[in-house]
Every structure is written in structure tokens, then in C-alpha cells.
Amino acid sequence: MRGQADDTQDITELVITNYTLSTLAKGAIKGQTIRMATPIALAIAGSEASGGAGAQTDLKTFHELGVFGCTALTCIVSFDPNNNWGHRFVPVDPQVIADQIEAAASVHSHIDAVKIGMLGTPATIEVVSQALDTYKFPQVVLDPVLICKGQEPGAALDVDNALRAQVLPKASIVTPNLFETQVLSGRDEITSVEQLKDAAKAIYDQGVPVVVAKAGTLLGTGTALDVYYDGEQLEVLEVPAVGSERVSGAGCTLAAAITAQVAKGVAPLQAVRDAKQVVLSAIENRMHGNAPFSYVYQGGASATL
Length: 305
Ligand code: PXL
What we know:
By secondary structure, the chain is of the alpha/beta class. The chain contains 9 helices and 12 strands. The relative contact order is 0.13.
């Protein structure tokens, strides 16, 4: 009976593959077989050559969750094996960033959600902020990576201020880690769940509709703990901690998985719950190489051939 033209047919009998709520609403013509558009997510993020973090991680996460991924690279990070694995950081020319966003937004008929990762310089923040105004993407998930190892410490404050002023107000969801939560909320210290909740509310008060303040394992709860706040719901989300060592790319994976889920039309709280499971799996399947840190792998659970 699937897809037969018949005006008694219920919409639930239609063949529906991947969909977003908006395309479902536009395409749902009673009695027709319809193939819904694949959700598309754009990562505006840095390249991290080893593949454990940044745009490479974002793409793998989108793919794992059935979302078509595209990227606009903001910087090139190369870990330095001869200098304590510091980050060699090269910003991409702002015009080239604008060109990439234009290309992605023009090639695709729709972009359902954008993930913003490492921006790194005030000039990059400026051009990304302009692009958000131009393209008005329906969902913007901001992972507010403030600074990376190897950048000038003096540059940190400029990046922090520019991000807060120009990109934070355009985000639909923001996912700061404990340090970033402290900086964005202006709190001196966050050592308890109550303080984390208070800081999440302070960031929400700056105009971000959904705040996911991540403590990870740092509050000593024995879990990976995040606070979710959307102005109404205040939830403490916990999954079992897998060890206590920091795994590179976990934050990128969380924000990318949230992006993929909201691109499909999943509501924010559920998207964050789903994303925590994705991160848990990526950490359980983490890789160990020659560097003194491990790094997430999103494909470990799904490889079958
Ligand atoms: O995990 C934060 C991060 C984000 N983006 C890029 C990175 C890193 C950390 O190394 O290199 C490009």
C-alpha cells in the first residue's frame, strides 16, 4: 500500500526517509510517495590534520548520524611533535572563509544547521558574524573554542570579547566547557553543580536560547556532567565517565552531534541527550597513537565490513 495515490491514505503510510520538520510540512501531500531531503549541516571550523578534532571530527559525526556534512575551514592546526605537541595555528584568509560559506550555502538548496567551532582571530569572527547575518541559517550551534595551545595568550582576550559580542548573540545553542563557561559567565570559579547551573543561567541571560555548560568529569561526580538550560528546563545530564583523562575531540563531537540532531528536527534537549551518547561511544572507541593524548573515533561502533 505504500505510496499509492488514494485519498483515504494516511500520511503515515508515505515513504519518508531522512527529513526535517520544515521539509516534511512542505512536502506532505496526501496520497503521494515522497522522498524527503537529506538533512545538511555546515561546520565552520578549523582543520586539525590528525583527524581527532575540528572539522574532520565534525564531518565524521554528521556522517555517523545520517546528515550530509559540508565545511568552511577557518584555520589550519598542525600539532607539533617536536614542540610538546603544541598547536601550529594558521588562520585562513577572511575572504576565503566568506567564499567557502557562500559556496556551501549556494550549492545546497537548504542548510538545516550550522556548527561553529574554532574561529581563533577577531578577523575570522567578524567575517563569520557577517555570514550569519547574510544567510540566516535556521540553527546555529556554537562551540565557543576560545583559544588553542600555541596561540599568543595576548590574543585570547580579543578573541573572547569578539566572540561574545559578535557571534554569541547569533547562536541558537552554545556548548562551553568549564573554562569557557567561567569566562562567558564572568564567574570566578565553578566547583559545584549549583555554580554550574548559575553560570549556565548567566550565559542564557546574555541572549542565547539554549546553553549546554559542560563540566565533563571536572566536578568529581564520577560522571560526565553537563547542565542544560533553555529558560524553562534546567537539567543535569550525566553519562558514565570513561576514565578521567581528557580525550581530544570530545567537545567537537558533542557540538557536531547536537548540530546533526537539530538538523533532523530533533528538539534541543533530546538532541543534547543523543549527543552525549554519541560522545560516550566515540570515547569508548578512542584511538591511541604516539601523542600523549587519545582522540575520539566516531566510526568504531559502526564498522561492519
Ligand atoms: O578540540 C578543540 C579544537 C577545535 N578545533 C580545532 C582544534 C581543536 C583542538 O585541537 O585543533 C581545529
